[in-house]
Design a protein that fits this description.
Chain lengths: 395, 226
Amino acid sequence: MNFLTLAAKNLARRRGRTILTVLGVAIAISVLFSLLSLNSGYEKELNKEVSSMGVHMLAVPKGCPYEAASLIIHGGVIPKYLAAGDLENVSRIPDVELATPMLMHQFLKVDEKTGKSTPHIIYGIKMEEMLQLKPWWKVEGRFFADNETKVMLVGRDLAEKENLTVGQVLPVGPKKENFTIVGILERTGDQDDQFHFFPLKEAQRVFNKEDKITTIAVKVRDVSRISAVSAEMEKIPDIQVVTMTQIMGTIMNLAGSAKSLLLTVIVIALIISAFGIINTLLMSVNERTREFGMMKAIGASGSDIGKMVLMETVIITFGGGIIGTVAALVGSSLIESFVKGLLPYSPTGSLISFSPSLVAFALGFSVALGLICGIYPALKSARLTPMEAIRSGLE
Amino acid sequence: MSGIIEARGISKVYRRGREEIHALKDVDFAVNKGAFVSIIGPSGSGKTALLNVLGCLDTPSGGSLKLNGIETIGLKEGDLVKLRRENLGFVFQQFYLIPTLTARENIELPLLFGHQNGNKRRIDQVLRMVGLGDRGDHLPAQLSGGEMQRVAIGRALINDPKIILADEPTGNLDSKTSEMIFGLFADLNRRGMTLIIVTHNLELARQAQKMYTLKDGRIVGCENLS
């Protein structure tokens, strides 16, 4: 037998109480671990996503808030359109390498069997220009030409979700026109995996948005000229420019607020669980006062008793740390969907990135929590004189 | 025979609020090595207070106490821990066994505190000495009252102490079991162990070699029995 066995067996005496305390710690550690994983994962995914746009800035209709700009990369639909000459004006700015028009539209696809409708996002694009912006795009089947009609490309995730194959025909638009899938994009790992892509003219025709566009995606010749080009574009009436840095900044700010909220919740949870641990330990120390007296009588020193109580605390918190970390790893998808609901913008990829150093931190934190919470009960029991401890046995 | 315990003019005063309780008043008490001594007296007479002072669990308010020739008054807690660990074994009325430890593990506890844990041979020897050779792996809840007290006695014996101090060791036991426990004490005494036992039970107290009677914190009687 050693001190660790003794401490573990002491905890086994109040099994229910010990388990509840361990679970309290587990919940706090699990949330802490998830948040830390999320913190690193979120930024990584967001950077990846914004750079995968291949675009330096977006021109959107004036009055469109930044959140709408973030909606664009997320596939949201803006209920405003740019004026006809805007594209030409933007293209004319000297440092603009490429300005390509896009129309975004959303339609509801009704499942014939269940009758459930799900929103689908359609991008009307100019394929040739898009391939200049996104040279990494690869396709199963083929890309469409800009002058083709009744053809579409679909993202990989969408194709898998809806069981779509090359050559399949889908009814689209108010007149249910049959569009053929000519290609399925190879996985890009970003939002493009979720969309339908139509030739711009076809998208405008099918949804009765002739000559209308929602966005102009702009690539500049030299990234150091982004702000100069942006200033130039702002001079065009009705246009608002959102650079990718701005979008990222806005999203990170909004995400930052959401994260501080979560962090506050976690700190409160940790404080509550710390008091829970201290309370459990103090109760257990008080109940065993006379027993500690006996231990001192049979040769235990104050530090022996303190060490035993401290070990009991660390077993509780370390156990909670292990359970919490495993729970966070196992339930990460659940936690992710909860957190995604709280964030103003969520990249497509997994937000949670686990690393061994994070696991080590969570477990190290749980041990530190135990040591902090155990100090007072351990000191209290260590300082008892044998007589104080067994006084109630006095005649 | 030499005095293993020599107490001179021991007094003990407890304060309860403004009230002062004189638990021990000018007590002289000496025990020779290898002696079997019992202390009797009514409730509140100071029996346990005396035992706790003799066992260095409590410091007296006045007087001197020599244990094995060493003056204990004024020693630091660390030295007292060492003194208790090397010289004394305690047996309590309530046994104070840890319910989740087996008999063997309960007996091993003092070795753990003395950093000598894992001495299996010594534990087996003590288990046999207290008549529990085949009960070592039982939890306290699986043992009778008498067996639990034997475990507690085993725990007191494991460090091979010079003196066993027992406070009402049969207080929670029936008369037959009490006889058996006293038989065990007598057996230990025959092997040379010094025993000081506090009890209410006069019949059992008379099995010692010397019986002290306490009343109101003073020794009012001392009877040689053997």
